[in-house]
Amino acid sequence: MRTTFSPLVEADDLQRNRFLMAARAAAEAAGLAKPIAQSLAAALRELESNIHEHSARAASGILAFQARPPLFEFVVADSGVGVLATLRDDKEFANLTDHGLAMRAALQDNVSRYGRGSGRGNGFRDLFLGLAHLNADLRFRSGDHALLISGPQAELKTARLSQKAQFQGFLAAARCQSMMPQSATHH
Description:
Elements: E1 2-7, H1 13-29, H2 34-54, E2 62-68, E3 71-78, H3 82-87, H4 99-106, H5 124-131, E4 135-151, E5 160-177
Antiparallel strand pairs: 1-2, 2-3, 3-5, 4-5
Helix pairs in contact: 1-2, 2-5
């Protein structure tokens, strides 16, 4: 089993790149195909970038992954302003008051604090592409809602939204299971 944690406070570009390369290699070692492992590393990079760009508290951000055949798991979290506050920066979403609806919107392509026409807001595409053919569980938390997506075809349209206790910031967690037979993952 391999577990790695990276606080963003002290990380420089070299450390971030090493972390992402280690995550990709760990995902492959857990039995995920190389293109899937690359998509998940790209999703981690985008989620990490979102902390710097959107949270208003980048120093609070963390990234972590754990791999053990046939599982690869990661979490990216911060204690920043959350998805609702971030989206409300754009006039299109200024009247949005529900954390759950804000999270569902933010996970769609072309939705960002810069507006739908900005050419931004495509960061979750890598995550969903990487998980398209895996048995995966995705959990997102922000404000007073959690959004769960699980199953062999992880897509936003199958998401379950539920109200929870207040959570400061944003959390994205993924648990991916390789479709590789268990015996093939052991050397």
